[in-house]
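Data card: per-record layout.
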Amino acid sequence: MEKLGFTPWPGTLNLEISMDRVAVIESLMVKEGIELVSPGLNYCSGQVFPVSIEGIPGAIVFPAQDVRVHEKNVVEIISPKLLKNALGVKDGDCVTLTLNRHLKQ
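The structure for this 105-residue chain is written out next.
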């Protein structure tokens, strides 16, 4: 994950976004993100887009369509940290997710 600038913690934080923000997320899916190449059978391929979550670097993961399991208002976030612990949050808590529209090339 050299282009993101971090090695992801194994696992994702799933965030439910408000339905009025789904269009913003869907607009990312039609753009060229950073290709996510599966390193093994326990991972999927797809695209990622840099974000920060409460100031912690991360990325939204868009799994390939054939393995996407969440509704369109749920996004998966990878980060170099176990985000629930780093943020001190539990299920149902609100967090701020900031899109980084400038991809590293």
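Known properties of this structure: The CA atoms of residues 43 and 98 lie 25 Å apart. The chain has one domain: 13-99.

See the next section for split statistics.
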